[in-house]
Structure formats: C-alpha cells, structure tokens
Amino acid sequence: MSEAPTIDNQEAEQVHAVAIRFAGDSGDGMQLAGARFTDASAIFGNDLSTLANFPAEIRAPAGTLPGVSSFQVHIADRDILTPGDQPDVLVAMNPAALKANIADLAPAGIIIVNTDAFDERNLTRAGYATSPIEDGSLDAYRVLKVPMEDLTKRALEGSGVKGRDALRSKNFFAVGLMTWMFQRPLEPTLEWIASKFAKEPDIKAANELAFRAGFNLGETTEMFRHTYRVEPARLPAGTYTNVTGNQALAWGIMAAGQAARLPVFYASYPITPASDILHELARHRNFGVRTFQAEDEIAAAGAALGASFAGHLGVTGTSGPGLALKSETISLALMTELPLLIIDVQRGGPSTGLPTKTEQADLLMAMYGRHGESPLPIVAISTPADAFEAVIEAARIAIKYMTPVILLSDGYIGTSTEPWRLPDLAALPDISVPFAIAPNGPEATFLPYLRDAKTQARPWAVPGTPGLEHRLGGLEKDGTGNVSYAPDNHERMTLLREGKVKGIAADIPDVLVDADEGAEVLVLGWGSSYGAILAGVRRVRAAGKKVARIHLRHLNPFPANLGAVLAGYRRILVPELNRGQLVRMVRSEFLVDAISYPKVQGQPFKAAEIEAKLLEII
Amino acid sequence: MSEAPTIDNQEAEQVHAVAIRFAGDSGDGMQLAGARFTDASAIFGNDLSTLANFPAEIRAPAGTLPGVSSFQVHIADRDILTPGDQPDVLVAMNPAALKANIADLAPAGIIIVNTDAFDERNLTRAGYATSPIEDGSLDAYRVLKVPMEDLTKRALEGSGVKGRDALRSKNFFAVGLMTWMFQRPLEPTLEWIASKFAKEPDIKAANELAFRAGFNLGETTEMFRHTYRVEPARLPAGTYTNVTGNQALAWGIMAAGQAARLPVFYASYPITPASDILHELARHRNFGVRTFQAEDEIAAAGAALGASFAGHLGVTGTSGPGLALKSETISLALMTELPLLIIDVQRGGPSTGLPTKTEQADLLMAMYGRHGESPLPIVAISTPADAFEAVIEAARIAIKYMTPVILLSDGYIGTSTEPWRLPDLAALPDISVPFAIAPNGPEATFLPYLRDAKTQARPWAVPGTPGLEHRLGGLEKDGTGNVSYAPDNHERMTLLREGKVKGIAADIPDVLVDADEGAEVLVLGWGSSYGAILAGVRRVRAAGKKVARIHLRHLNPFPANLGAVLAGYRRILVPELNRGQLVRMVRSEFLVDAISYPKVQGQPFKAAEIEAKLLEII
Amino acid sequence: MTTEARYTRADFQTDQEVRWCPGCGDYTILASVQNFMADLGVDREKIVFVSGIGCAARFPYYMNTYGLHAIHGRAPAIASGLAVARPELSVWVVSGDGDSMSIGGNHLIHALRRNINLKILVFNNQIYGLTKGQYSPTSEMGKRTKSSPAGSIDFPFNPVSLALGAEATFVARTIDMDRTHTTEILKQAYQHRGSAFVEIYQNCNVFNDKAFAALTGKDERDQNRINLVHGEKVLFGPDRERGVIIDGGTARIVDVADAGIDAIHTHDATAPSAGPAYALSRLSHGPFGPTPVGVFRAVDRPVYEETLQQQIHDAQAKRGPGDLAELIASAGTWTVPDHDERELPAHS
Amino acid sequence: MTTEARYTRADFQTDQEVRWCPGCGDYTILASVQNFMADLGVDREKIVFVSGIGCAARFPYYMNTYGLHAIHGRAPAIASGLAVARPELSVWVVSGDGDSMSIGGNHLIHALRRNINLKILVFNNQIYGLTKGQYSPTSEMGKRTKSSPAGSIDFPFNPVSLALGAEATFVARTIDMDRTHTTEILKQAYQHRGSAFVEIYQNCNVFNDKAFAALTGKDERDQNRINLVHGEKVLFGPDRERGVIIDGGTARIVDVADAGIDAIHTHDATAPSAGPAYALSRLSHGPFGPTPVGVFRAVDRPVYEETLQQQIHDAQAKRGPGDLAELIASAGTWTVPDHDERELPAHS
Ligand SMILES: Cc1ncc(C[n+]2csc(CCOP(=O)(O)OP(=O)(O)O)c2C)c(N)n1
Ligand SMILES: Cc1ncc(C[n+]2csc(CCOP(=O)(O)OP(=O)(O)O)c2C)c(N)n1
Ligand code: SF4
Ligand code: SF4
Ligand SMILES: [Mg+2]
Ligand SMILES: [Mg+2]
C-alpha cells in the first residue's frame, strides 16, 4: 500500500506492497506476532523485509512508552529493499504503543486498536489526557476498534486456559486478524504453533483458538469486509528462508570454517546487538563449533587470537564499546600477522549511547582506531542475508593474507530479516590455505616472517608441527622474526604490512556501477543503507532522472577501480548513518569533493530521504 | 662543527656548533656523562639540544650491541633546533658502542675510544672479527685512542676506591676529557659531583679525581692539543634551565592546576616513554599533587575521570598501547562532558612495537579511535620546553569546554632536552572556570546539560554542592540530562557535541605563517618535527630558496584560517614520523593535494632530510 | 552518623521512572538503600553513587544524590578517583555480578586491596540481566542460558571468597528480600573505614527466578540461612539446632547435639586473620544449601586516601606547600644577560 | 610423563641471546624450566609458551618451543583460547607480578576459576622490572620506588590467597634459587589436570635486590622457610623445632615443644576445602618472616576444555556431526517455483 488502497469494495483488493507494524507492550509478544505473520507471508511467496524495534535495555513497567516493542514487516509482490519508510497499517495493543508509533504511520493509514487496553490506567501511563480513540484525534486515519482481550478470553472459554494466561494469546488473535485481512494462508502459523507448543498442549490449544478467532472475526464482521491481496513476488526460483543478519552471520562463520577447513572458535563477551551471534553459535556444539564466553572483550579478542595461533578460525564479535576495548589486541594480531576475524555489530554511540539502535559510526575507528601504523582490511555487510557471504569473504582475506580483518555489521542488519535464497553450500569457495609443515629457511630452519611472493603473507605454522617451533610477538621484528629495533628495518616492516593490505585490492572485485547512461550524480553507499539507497535510486529513476550507484563491500582497501569511477561523476553523494566517515576516506584518498549525507538518529535511512536528497542535487 | 673543523692549530679553534655523542654500555653511565657535559655547556651559555638513546626494554649483557646506550648533545653559539643530524664527535667506551654509532658520525669526524675495552671478548661480543681501531677501518675518521680504564684506575690510586668500583668513574674521565677539548668550565661538574655525592665521600672523591684526570690528560697530552671553542649563544636574556619534555610536561600540569585553581590528580599506569611524568609528579606531594598508580590504563583513565567529576584537574598519561585501552573511557568522558586531560607520549608501533623509539603515528587514533561519533580536541607539543605551555593550553580547553582533550607528545620530546627560559609564573593565564553553585533550571532544579550560550559547555557541578545533585551517564540524554533514545534528540546531541569542539576554532590563535615573500611551497608540520623542519627550512633559505612554514599546535579543530592559508600555496609538504596521518586530515578537510613526507624509523627527522626534500620539490 | 531525621525516603527518590521489570529484586534493594540513606542523615550532596552497566547499574538514576552511570565494569576505578580526590564524600558503587566480577573483576580486587573508602554493593543475581540472560561468573556449573544452551562449563566465583582473597577489609552478604538485614549491613558497611564489599543476593525474576530460593523460600530458608553475628556462636536451623565448626581451616556443619555447643565456632568478624572468614565462605558455593549471611570480616587497615592525605600533609610540613618557580629552577639554571637580543623564532 | 631422555637442555635453548640483567633470577628459572622440559620428554612441538610484557615475559624467546610474546597482561586470555582450541598442547604462561596481577589480574582469576589446562608461572619480584622500578601489586606497603618516592600506600596482594580466592585448583609457591624445589613444583603443576598457579619468588637484583632474603639468605632461610609437603606435618626451623597449627581457621606458628607434635597441622593439598590452604597462605604477606613454599592446594575439578570437548562429543552423538544445509533450512523455508525470472539486482 505504498500507494494507499481505497477501501470501498468487498472484494480482496490487490496491492503491490504493504508495510504492517505490530506494536505493543514488551510483554505482549509483538516480536512473535510479527515473525509469524512474516513467515506466513514468506511461505506465501512475497518478498519481504522486516525491522524489529525493541525497548532500550531496561524492561520498563507495563503500559509505558519506554516499554513499547514493535515489529514491522514489509511484504510485496516484487523485490523490496527496506522494511518500509512508513507503515500502512499499525496494530496497537495499548495506548503507549499507539502513541509511540502513530507519528510514523502513513497518511490515511489503518490503525487496529485493542480497545480493551485503552482504560484510564493505561492512558495515563502513556500520557494521554483523553482517549485518542474517542476524542477524534485519529480522524485522519482509518481506525478499527477491536476488544482483543475480551474476544480472546471468550474464544478460550472452556479451553482450560483462563484469566491472565488466556490474555497471553492475544498476540495470536492479532495475527489471525491480519492473516484474514491480508489473505495469508493459515497453515504456516498453525503448524508453527503445533510444533512449538507440542509439549504444552494447553498453550497450543489456546494460541490456536485465539489465532482462529482473530481470523474468524475478520471473516464474519462487517468492519473487516475489506481485505487486501499482495501477490507472491516473482523472486528468483529457489528455496528461501527468512533470516536476521545475526543468524546469517553465525551461519556464515560456520560456513567459512568449512570453506577454510578450519574448526571455528568464537570468543565473545555479550553485548547488544551482537549477542545473538554468540547465542546462535553456542547451539551448534555438534558442528564442532567452540564458543567461549570471555570475561570481557579484551579476553574475547585474546582467546580468539590464541585460537588462531593454534590453527583455528578465530573469530570475535562485539559492538562499538567492545571494539574500542579490543584495539590493543587487534594491534597484536596485526603485528604477529595472524588471521583474526573481528565482527562489529555497530550501534548508536558514543559511549553506551543507544545500545538498541543502529548506526554506522565505527568505520573510522575500524580504520584508524589503533596506535602506530596499523592498517587492516575492512569488509562491510549490506543486508541480513548478505552477512553470510560477507563473512566468508572476510575470513578468506584474513587467512590468505594472515591479517586481522574487521567485518562491519550494524544493529539494523543484525536484527532485521529478509528472505534469503538458500545458498548452494557445495559451491562454497575453497578458502583454505595450507599450514606450513616444513622448514623454509637455510639449514632446515623455519622463518616465520618469510613472505609469500604474491600475497606477502607469512606462513601459518601451528603448534604441534615438528620442526617449525618459533616465537611470535608484538615487538618489531626483522624478516626472520627476530626482534629488531633497527631504524631501516622498522620502516621496511611498516611498509610491508601496509603493502600487504593495499595489495588485497588486486584480489577483490572492481566496483560495479549501477549507472544510468549519462548519469552525472553518483550515490556511494556502504553497509546497511543498501536497501534504502537502492529503493531511493529506483524512485528517482522512476521520476525520470539519471543516477548512478555504487555500494561498497570492501572499505579497506578500496576496490582498485574506485578512484577512476568516482572521477567520472560531477557529484558524489555519500549517505551514511554517521557524521560523514566514508566521505572523509574518499575525499582524502581521491581528492574528490564528495558530499556527505549524514543521519544520526539511531534509525536506518528511509528510501524517501535518499530520493529527496538525490532530487535536490541532481 | 656542522662545518667540520680542521684540526691543525694548537689554539682553541672557534666553531659555531658541535654535536657530541657519548656512547657506551648501559652500565657505563653515558646518560650521566652526557647530562654533565650538557649542564656545563648550558651554564656556559650555549644554546643546546640533546637526544638520549636507551637500549630497548631489556638490559642486555654488557658489551653487546643491544646494550649500547648513548647521549648526544648539540651545542651552539646561536639558537639551534635539533640535537644534530650527525655527531661530529663520538666518544665510544667499548667496541659495541663504536659499532652501533659509527654509521651516524659525520664524515671525517672525531672518535675518542676507550682502548681498554677493545679486548678480544668485547670485540667478539660486538661482532668484530678484528679490532677496528687497529685494522684501518676507521681511517676516514680522526681516532683518538685513550686507555680510559687504566688512566682512571691510576688516577684513583690511593683514593681508597679500587678495582671494579674505580672503573665506574670512567664516565667522569670521559667528561673531563671533553670538558678540556671543548673548553667548558669545570665548576658546574665539580659542584654537581660535590652535592650529589655529599653523603658518599669516597665516590665523590673518585669521580672528582677521574674528572680532573680526564681534563688534565687533555691539557698535557700532545694528542689533544686541538681544542674547540663554542661561544655562548645570544639567547634572549633570562634565566634558563635545561629540561626534558616529560619534566616540562609534569611541571606544566602543576602549573595548569594553579592556573585553573584546581587540585591536580594524575592517574597513570607505567609505560615507556611516559612513566617519567608519573615519577616527577609523585615527588611533589607537598604541592598537593595526587598521583595514583592504577592497575592498568583503563583504571587510570577511570580514576582521572572520577577525579574530574569530583572537581579536580583529572589527568592521565600514557603511550600508544595505553591510549588504545583508554578509548572506551575517553568516550565516556566525552558523553558525560567532563574535562579530562589525556597525554599520549607516542612511541613506535603497532603493538608493543619499538617502546623506546619515537613516532607520531597515534594522531589518527587520537582523532578517530573511539566508537560512535566522538570528536574531541587534540593539542600537540613541539619541543621539550614547549610541553609546559602546551599542557596548560590543553587544560584550558578541557575545562572551558568541558571535554576530554588529547595532548600528543612523543618519545623524542619526552626524553630529549633543550634550554628553557624560566616562565614568568605570575603571568600564567587564568584558566579557571567557576563551578556551578546554584540551580539553573525552573523551580530551582539543576539541568546538568544546559549549555553556555557561547562555549556550548555544560556546567560543572561537583559533588558536595547542595541542591545540584544530578546524575551523569554514558547513555544518550536529552537537554535536561535525562536518558533519551529519541531519534531527533540523538541527532541534536551529536551535533551539539560536534559543534562544541568545532567552535573551539574561534578560541585558538590563527596559524602564523613563517613565509618568505613569494614562496610557493609550504611545509606543514606538527609535534616534535618542529626543530628539524625549522632547521631544514633555514638551510633551504640559506640556499636562496623561498619557502613557507606552518607548525600546528592545534590538530582538532584546526585553526580557523588554516584552509585559507593552505589555499595560497602551490605545493604543501607534510613531513611526519608516520605514514601520512595529518596529511589525510588536511586532504579530506581542505581537498588540497598535500604531499606526505613520511618517515617511520623510530628516529626523529634530520634537518638534512627536510632540506633535501624541500630542495627536491621547490 | 547523625541521628536527626532530616530526610525521608522521598528525599532520595528522583523524578525518573524506575524501569526494572516488575517484581525485580532491585526494587527492594532500592527501597532499603533510600530508607537507609534517609535515616543515616548524611548530607545528600555529599553522597555519590557510581555504577557500571547492567540492570543493577541503573541504580544511580533513582537516587537523588550525585551519581554517575558509567561504563561496564569500570565503576570501582572511577569511584576510586572520586574518593581519593575528595575523601570527605561518601562514595557508593552499585554493580551486578557481571559488571563487578566479569569485565570489572580487576578494578574490584584492586579497589579492595587498596582499601579505598568505597562501599561496593554487588547485586548478585547470578545472571546477565540487562543483556537478556547469559550466564555470569557466579552462575552455577551446568546452567542453561542463551549463551550456554548445553550448560555452563565455567566454575563460578564465590564472591565472598574472591573478596577475601583480594585482601578486602570488610566483606558481607545479604539478601534483597530481607530489608532489615540489608539495612543493618549497609550501616556496618558505611561505618567501616575503607572498602566495604557487600554481596546482595538479588532475584532476577525474568532470567533467573528463584535462584536464592534456598534462602528466601518459606520452606527452605529456616534450614539454610546461617546468620553470622559478631561475637556469637554460628548456629542456625529452625531451632538453632545446627552449628558450624571450623576444624583445621575447614568449616563444617554439625548437629549441635553431636558436637557440643563448645565446639561451635564463635564468629569474630574482626579476627586479624582472614582465615576463619574464608573458611565460612566455603560453606556454600551457590547458595544451594546452608549459606552464611552477615558480616564475614571487618578489620581496620589504613585507608588509601587517608594515607595519601597524610603524605601530602607530611610533605608540606617538611618542605612547605611547594613553590613552582623554585621547583623549576631546582635542576640548575644559568642566566643569559641582557644584550642586543636577536629575534628568535618562538617555539610555536 | 615419558621417561626416555630424548632431549637435553640444549634442545630447549634458542639462538636468541638471553638479555636479562646479569645476576637476574630469571636466568635460574630459565635453566630450571629448560632442564625440566628436557627431562619431561614431551614433544617439543607440542609445547607453547605464552607471555605478556615484562622482563619475565621475555621468556618465550628463550624456549625452543612454540611461543607467543603477547601484550601486557593478556597472556592468560590468549593462552585460554589456545588451550581450549587444542587441548592436546601443553600450554604454559609466563608472567611477572605486574603482568599477571596488575593489568592482567582479571584474566588470571578467570582462567583459574575456569580450570583451563594452563600452567601459569608468575615470576614475582615485587617490582616492575622492565619499566625500571615502579612498585607492583605485590610490593610491600611503604616501599620507596620511582613512582612511590614517599612510600607505597597500596596494600599488596598475597598471590597465593588471591589464587585461592579465585577458585584455583592448583596453587604453589617456589623460589628461583632453589632449582630442585622449582623442578619438583613444575612437575606437579604439569601433572595437575587444569590450571596450575605457580608463584616463583624471583630476585630482581637491579630494582629490588634481596627482596626474598628471608628465604634465600644464608642466615635467614633456615628460620623462615616452611616447606609444605603433602601428608606431612608442617614443621620448620633448623631442627624442625617449630610448626604450624591451624586453629579456628587461623594458621599460627608455635614451638613444637609447647604445642605438642599432635597439634601440628598435617598438610593435605588435596583437601576438598580450600580453607586450610588459605589459612597457610596468611602466614606471611611478603615474605618477611616464616613463609610456606610448596604445593598449597591440588584438587580435581573438571577441566574446561575437556568438558567442552565432551559437550561436542555428546552433541554429535545425539544430533550427528551437523549439516549446515539442514541447519539453515531449519527455521522454515518456502520455495519459489521456476518462472520467467526478472533480473533482480543481486545484494551486492
Ligand atoms: C564494554 C561493554 N561490554 C558489554 C556490554 C553489555 N552489557 C551490559 S550489562 C552486561 C552484563 C550485565 O550483567 P550484570 O552486571 O550481572 O547486571 P544485571 O543486569 O544482571 O543487573 C553486559 C554484558 C556493555 N554495555 N559494555
Ligand atoms: C598496555 C601496556 N601498558 C604498560 C606497559 C608497560 N609495561 C611493560 S612491562 C610492565 C610491568 C612489568 O612488571 P612485571 O610484570 O612485574 O614484570 P617484570 O619486568 O618485573 O618481570 C609495564 C608496566 C605495556 N607494555 N603495555
Ligand atoms: S532482567 Fe532481571 S535483573 Fe534486570 S530488571 Fe528484569 S528482573 Fe531485574
Ligand atoms: S630489571 Fe630486574 S627482573 Fe628485569 S632483567 Fe633486570 S634484574 Fe631481572
Ligand atoms: Mg547480574
Ligand atoms: Mg615484576
């Protein structure tokens, strides 16, 4: 309903896309409701994109604004790129949920309210003097009032589940209602309930009853005679699943281990929004994955580095504050030239900042946040599903070039979902690099810093290999690995380390430009703004303007052709969820007058913002 | 002897400048010897500059190359700027000292060797197959052979000090010899010995005897008939002392406390080359200075921040690895907007790197080494004596703008010395800012984030002040100081923090350009390369070329006129002891094609290097 | 401690909505602390609460005193600076088990050994609450959490033992639910000169509900709670029929009837040796059985900041308050006489 | 331990010149360790030495095994990753008192509680050697150093107590000079399954000479050295005329003649309770008087990486070795049938 539907016939109206936001108290199960609706839509065949919005780190008292949790899902009959700038439909389970979300609703959007929650107490908690569903303040919207709690309770009568427990099923009532309204299949949700609550028959029955009651209410009530149909999207054929970025990342790490033929060692200290990577990996002991919950981020980086020295794929994941703490250890990885994969799921900063919100403001820290000259490769993830491939690429570079690599994700990628065509695991690239097993120096000695002529990588000789005993360390060393403070040697080694990283440019793809013939303006993006930028660009094109677009996966080194490409455009716009970080790198590197389009609101870009900005400068 | 003297008359020959390097084993007391010679020269009235070179962190076995310690002093009859590119005279106490230093010696320079140390054992330890003082390999130099140990022992005969103990005085023998050779007054050294060893009469006597013996050898031997005279320099009138950068920094911190009317709290974890700041401050309990040796750098930053919150001048000093560790805490200081002074005495990196060597490679970490958008002011020190003023300036900014400030020094500044005209302490600027003492909000409330209209600083209300109880924290907050996750608020606060730092540009002096009329090439420097750059520029000018020069004290924000100034030059050269860090900032900020002139050898620039590079591009 | 009732609990409440989960033990502790502070009567502006990150660490926002909600694990370090700079303030650290013993373990043990005058309250819920339920350094082995779905394999710290191993001069344990006991322990912690380490068992009803049931459950608490009272025999049980003996360094639980009352250990919190306190701390590692609460140890030792103050005082007495000009000149000076000064470039 | 003499000390020496100050206790320890390794006969390539920064931390450069000279304080964390990844390796940590207990304190205590199979050797010279003489967390109060010219005001850790407070399963102390004793302790540490904490008193003859004179000085050592031997009475003195009793948790020194031999404590390193070991650790805090050396505690507890290995094993037994394709599909999939595919931009 990006083009809002007119609601005037009894037939199912066909729309191309619709964004629905489920909002309620943290205790209302809105994440679950959204996920169920999403899955049903996925199985139905829509393309989709989701965005979860959790309350900040503390559980607020029920009914208050800080306690509001929401889940937005954008479904479409064509490929889409964002969870939607503005929801077309808002399901509000209580006054606080309404208040916290109403400003985002599309003009003339639909609101489905759970009227039972609009009592004096909840209205006060949300800070409403009068009830918005009575006082006419929602007249600009189409408001559908449903006493969901009462109806749920009634549906459950006789089921054995009563009182407060019965109320817990009201999220399924809401899902049922939406399932009817948007003509989703019932089976996926029913099956999910059946398998999830197989061991708790009461709850299973209750949720089923509530779900069906919601659906039936739609079918039988006048109020809901309008339904909408979003046809399946013509996605590339294949089998799909719906993933969050953190999930795809965890699986990508496991895949990287397989592709590199290395056991995976993941060390981490819990931190929002990166913790779910640890949680996911910890579940897979049967894959041989070792997870290590360290005492802090420094220890996590250290343990991962120790595992790398031992010949594992050492990975450590965190968010901004944790990356700051890991700096010194990353610097050691760089000096010892051991592969180490560092994942930063960026969040709003500085300091503790906005732990549950997204931002892209750690790029320059990734680039420069270490003492001394300490260049390392940086790879960025663009979408939830992309995390899978991106982490394999990061691991490839780390192992092949014996270097720490920073992989940048963010809270938006980590927690939102998109459909992902299951990868062909048989076709995973072989990113393995053989360990050193034989002496490489004169008289059967082993020189740990003798470099590969092409990659400049030093050999990886792991403990347990007879004859290759050697010592690594953080002091400057000469080519043999022995400590050296000689002036020339330090310069030589500094240049070698720098050159090794720079040289990777020859081993990564050139940037592809998605350009209209004759476009003079180029948008240069990175990371999670992929979807919003592409969607914005499409709109601009739809408006008949010409524009070019690049989205960077490799932020250090830049792809070899980047400078030349940039030189071909009159104006370069760099939208970033920070105050202009990539733009600084590009300006300094290529001396192009790239324009920063910064946003620091803890929220992803909207397609409309990119569109508007582009229209302004083209 | 920058113009090497010809040694052909018996009279004292007048030279304008001479650089002498005392080199020996760590156990030979070369630092002391150098310091004595320096003091005598200072008191005599020369301008001077020194450079100490310690063995790396481990005490090596006597007689080996890694154990060599040296001290270079450059004395002149005019103002000088560096310790000298190449020593004119090398005092070598053993073969290792000779071997480690000979490459630096000026063509046809003088070598004074302690022949007693050139025995089989020491030659082998130094890796000489044959004795360099016998085999003709030093023919290009003027070698003066002195059996210093034997002569010292003999001088001490009957003094009661014997054997190995007697040998300990041989450094004073060397100082005595140099004192004669360069016609220094004897009194300063004799007085120093007398006061230093007042409680150890034997040692006092031994050192005196050795010193005089060295002097007398010069006077009486044919070999030393050539002496040199370096007239007093025409320094500005005043009383001078000779300081290292670390010393001037420590005193500057104490002065800043006085100028700000705040008690000084210095928290640090020992690390080369910053530890001496802690050592110096710890000596001054009677000034009320509190030093706190923390368990690590994170705790040091934390304790200093706690002291700042308490209303002290909270200062924390470290070197690169420690700065990396402090990042997260600095970010908290930035978010809570508390004044905190962070000193980074930079050393060679990355990782443990070259702990005893100098480098300027932490600039970009100071600038960007924190997660999220976290701008803070950066001030750099140019020379040892300059540390005093620079730290007061850094403290001024921290307090006035309620912000952490990073002050960059380096190993070269920290450990080398120069004469310093005693500051007029009565004329110290008043950098105090009154604490908040009264409510500033409606209904007698206190709003900790209500900003000063001009500086954008928030008020500093210290615990103990009735009625101003408030809570600070690392989460994003709104204007009242309450936690806020609102999107617009985050953007507003981010811009406020950024704007506050940018605004400091209006409160710092414009850059002064030291320019020749019509110069088209400008050298842009910062930090400890001050002396080498200025000396290089002088030589270029002496060669009749035109050149302009800027040396930056403020690296963030840049002085307001910097962009305009840079725009006026055809070429901009940026010499740095790193791989091009300031140059990246300048290129990105002003889009000027500034050229990097990098050096990463753990050694300061030489004037000759700057000269050569300039001549190449002018 | 002043006795006048200048304050009520309300004076220590802020206008911030308290945002813990309904039912969280943190509410009870907050009430205890606010009431305690009101009774204590120390000037509100002289009190500072410093915390790290975690549910517990939200505490300062709810105390109408000076406060700093800092970063994860660093509160003891920051509070150390505060207390050393301003010994006249009353500085309190509030921390969780993860904040204080995982990321912040080092700062904790160093603050304790230095004996800085900090009152360190650790709300031990044996879980990471704020990050939604990972095991913590005090979680029991085998615990299944989000990050340990197969069961935790980390042997937990015993916070009291850890503090005693770190040379703490005051170590106590109490329980959120028992407000009277909590208040008594807070009072003793306040009165102690130097660092006071107070472990408060705190129920996280969302991620680790009933972790302390052995001490709070109606049926179990009488069996399991061992109250340590200075100068008294260590007896417990519904009829004080059980007791603790310490034998060759090992504390054991006995039936008083069997062992005889004389054999029962008499608790001496002020014993110069930390041995008995440590022995008592080993009685439970959990608490999943009989567990001592109360003050384990309270001994005198010089307070860091007081000794520092003394050093300043002594140095001033001996050398005067310090003259910077004199100091700068002390390394030796020389004078360049007035002459036709050249223009020398200033050191920029 | 194999018994064949495959190696000699020379096999464990590297071509790097040893660069400690002449006379430094580190030389003696190096010799002891090299000899011990030669006798041990474990494949050289299976041995890894990990260190932080400090004089002691130079150690790996001199051992012809695998080695990592890491960063200050982080060796236990790095070694933990190494040992957990590769349980078949023999992983040794070498650290100084500053490296392990100042900046590295947190990693140390966590490695100990986890019982990871690390042999942690702490060369305690009660000073920062490498940075040229500041006081360390084990320096005695009042010590005058570069950073404490007026005397240190930090109360020191007792490393043995700290380790015991951190749930260490093996805790021992030895002295650089006594190579036989050092070797015996190394052997027991090696044989222990899990973390072994070994404090080695090490003389820094440059910055803290004779710190351990009470235990090494000809005149004093007989009076002061208390050898702890498992299963034996704790007796010492030139004629074993003095002994230790542990009374209500407090260890005390008595004359055997007064107390009677039966009252003397019999050392049991394997006692389930850490209480007696802790009590013994409190006998000296320095060592500036009678000081126990030997193995304080050696108890069995599951080894972290073995339990992890077991979890992997169990999971594989139950769920098979894991099929990634299956896992990825497990959250539910749907299939889009083949059709006239539009060109969709790939997610770059
Ligand atoms: C540097 C850093 N690492 C990790 C986090 C994430 N984090 C916040 S609180 C917390 C643990 C909370 O546990 P605890 O201290 O026991 O407090 P509780 O929430 O249980 O009261 C973690 C891991 C963080 N905020 N900062
Ligand atoms: C992050 C960091 N902080 C500080 C230092 C400086 N540093 C190196 S070793 C050391 C202490 C050494 O003391 P100890 O561990 O006791 O070893 P020792 O030299 O006495 O053997 C310090 C403070 C460093 N290298 N890195
Ligand atoms: S998560 Fe647990 S500790 Fe945190 S507020 Fe909720 S109940 Fe309390
Ligand atoms: S400084 Fe001390 S510990 Fe370090 S090598 Fe020298 S004697 Fe040994
Ligand atoms: Mg907790
Ligand atoms: Mg030491």
Please outline the helices and strands.
The complex is a heterotetramer, with two copies of chain A (618 residues) and two copies of chain C (348 residues).
Chain A: E1 12-14, E2 17-25, H1 30-44, E3 47-53, E4 68-76, E5 89-92, H2 95-101, E6 110-114, H3 120-126, E7 142-146, H4 148-156, H5 163-167, H6 170-181, H7 187-196, H8 201-220, E8 227-229, E9 238-244, H9 245-260, E10 264-268, H10 275-282, E11 290-293, H11 297-309, E12 313-318, H12 320-336, E13 340-346, H13 363-368, E14 378-380, H14 386-401, E15 404-410, H15 411-415, E16 417-421, E17 471-473, H16 487-503, E18 514-515, E19 521-526, H17 530-542, E20 548-552, E21 554-556, H18 562-567, E22 571-576, H19 582-590, E23 595-598, H20 607-617
Parallel strand pairs in A: 1-8, 2-5, 5-6, 6-7, 10-11, 10-12, 12-13, 13-15, 14-15, 19-20, 19-22, 22-23
Antiparallel strand pairs in A: 2-4, 3-4, 9-16, 14-21, 18-20
Helix pairs in contact in A: 1-6, 1-7, 2-3, 4-8, 6-8, 7-8, 9-10, 9-14, 11-12, 17-20
Chain C: H1 25-40, E1 47-51, E2 66-69, H2 75-85, E3 90-96, H3 97-103, H4 105-114, E4 118-124, H5 159-165, E5 170-175, H6 179-191, E6 196-201, H7 213-216, H8 218-224, E7 225-228, E8 235-236, E9 242-247, E10 250-255, H9 256-259, H10 275-281, E11 291-298, H11 304-319, H12 324-329, E12 333-336
Parallel strand pairs in C: 1-2, 1-3, 3-4, 4-6, 5-6, 7-11
Antiparallel strand pairs in C: 5-11, 8-9, 9-10
Bound molecules: thiamine diphosphate (2 copies), iron/sulfur cluster (2 copies) and magnesium ion (2 copies).
One magnesium ion (MG) binds next to helix 3 of chain D.
